[in-house]
Each structure stands twice: as structure tokens, then as C-alpha cells.
Amino acid sequence: MITLAEHLLRQSKELEGKLTAFRRDLHRYPELSTHEAETAGKVAAELRKLGYTPTTGVGGHGVVAELAGDRPGPVIALRADMDALPIQEETGLPYASARPGVMHACGHDGHTAMLLGAAELLMRNRDRLAGSVRLLFQAAEEINAGAKAMIADGVLEGVSEIYGLHNLPTLPAGQMAIRYGALMGSVDRIELTLEGKGGHGAIPDQSIDPIVAASAIVMGLQTAVSREMSPFEPAVVTIGSMHAGEANNVIPHQARLTGTVRTFSEAARQSMPGRLDRLIGGIAQAYRCKAELRYINQTAVLVNHDGPAEQVERIADLMLGAHNRKVAEPTMAGEDFSEYLLHVPGSFFWIGSGPDREAERAYGLHHPKFALNEACLPYGAALLAAIALLRSGQQPD
Prior knowledge:
The protein is 34% helix and 27% strand. By secondary structure, the protein is of the alpha/beta class.
């Protein structure tokens, strides 16, 4: 006699062709954050075909649908993201992006297809459901804005637990990985303006050079981590852009820099604004420049709750086998699913999306040649459906 988890995986593999076709359509017509109207329309249309009554326009272009069982129980939320990236695709696939400069290079098209697959599996097995399942198709994850907007529109009201996943191209399809506690780093943005005094490049003594000050600040900021934080407290400060001047023989009046700050604990995150402001202010003053720093909080550290993470492990073992469940490595990459976990218990995990053979090269997330191994789609759909059913009160067979 097969278990419920095995039963769901069998059903999910029957949907593989359908999920692949839907995912490829999204891949061919990607949409950037806050512009996902067409994608949301396709998702809502598929949900209606399955018998759901979706609500659109939630937290921007988000789509929400709920399935209620016949017995009382908790509300379990499942979430997928829908937005693409401003990247020119270089895969050469027949279904490659038809929109110049826009690509699903992070696999959100696959996540959306997986949650739609879970929606169909849940509808097929509705008689097993206690309580209800709330499906969240979220916009604007790539700009760290979608989750907060969804929460502001009330998607977590009454929710007992929430679960989500992300594909991982370094893990073969058919495997998954999860970690207790902190899994992904916080994401904050810094914007710095340095004001000097412009002048002739050949007469620097009559100017105040913001480029030299900016260069010193870029180097000095590295001490915020290397000399002011414990080696056991991970953190990253990266300056990603610097713009100043137009001519080779002119000292500009201003320099503008932007960067990202990543930490792996809330305490470390809270310490960073003051630390960076002090370092920047001191270095700028030494170079006679005025500095204006904007520190913009974006996304919290993603911290899995122990209970839900343990249940995901148990369900993954039932479905995939314990040998296909891995311990996830921590990463400073961010995910705004972390915002949901600040409000309700839940867990986030990786689903393998890489080649079946280790010898085959897998391009990473956000790479113009990133290609999802579509064999992962039924696994993701089945895991999400199994989590919802088993966490709602259905006993494993």
C-alpha cells in the first residue's frame, strides 16, 4: 500500500507535461517586478479551470486562492513568486524569452507552475483536507517588495503556518535541501552621495575630489566586517555601483554610490546602519567631502521555524527518501519569504533543479544561460501539496 506522499508524487508526475507547458509559456513571456499583470491573469485563469475562485490584485499583481476541506483544521499557506529579472537571455532554447532584456533567470516561472500543480493535486484530494489551504502567488519578489505588500493586504490573516520553496540548480532534480534556523541573509540597500568641489583635473589643489573620497570609502567599508564583527558573525558589505564625472580632465562635484548589506542575524543587521554611517562620515571628513547616507531596510534574515522545518523533513523523507534530503548550506542571498516568517511559523526549502548528472554544467541563478531542469516541477508540486495536506491534520498512511 503506497503512502499519501507517494500517491501525490505519482499524480504529480502525470501532470508533468501540463506543468512544463505552462512554465514554458511564462518563460517565453516574462514580466518584471510590479509589471506581472499578464502572468497573474494566466495564473488566475488556470485556477478558475481547476475550480478555484481566485482574488487578483493582491499586494500589486498578486493572486490568492483558497481551498476549504470538509473538516475543521488550520489554515496552511503556500507561496510562489512570479516575477522575472532584467537580464538578456542567452540560453538559445526554443521557448527563450521573447522580450528583450527580460528573463526568468531565477526560475520563478517554475515556482509558479509548481504551486499551480499543487493546487490541482489539492483539488483532486480535497476529501483528505482538514481546514483550508491558501495559495499565494506573489509579485515583486526580486525587488524585495512583494511579500510586505501581500501581508499589508491581509494574506496572513488566520494563517497557522506558511511554506515556500526555491529551485536550486546545484542540486539535482529529485532532491531537496533544508536547514534549521537561519537559511538566507537579510537584504538592505545603501545609497551614498558625496559632495566635493569640482574643478580642473590638472589643478586638484583648487578642488575637493569626491572620487578619491569614494575610493577610500569603498576600501574602508570592508573594515566594517573584517575588523568590527566577530569572525563567527557572517556579514557582507558590497558597493555595486559608483557614478561620478563625465570627462577625463574634470574633477566632478559629486559622486554617487549604491551597495548592498547582508547579515545572518537580526542583531548584526541592527548594528550596521550606525557602523556604516560612522565609517563613511569619518572618511568623508578626512577628504573634506560632505556625505549623505541613506540606509534602506529591505528584507529580514530568513529564519526557518524548527517545528515546520522538522515536518518538511519528515514529508520529504516519505516522498523522496531520506537519501534525497540534504542539509542546506547557508547563503547570503536573500528572499522576501522571510517577511512572512516574521508573522507566522513556517519553513522555506530548496528543490533541486539541476542536471541529473554531476558532470553536466549547471548555470547558476541570475545567469543569462540559466536553464531549469523541468524534471523538478512534479517534485515541487507534490511536496507543496503533501505539506499542506499533512500539516492540515491528515495522518500519513
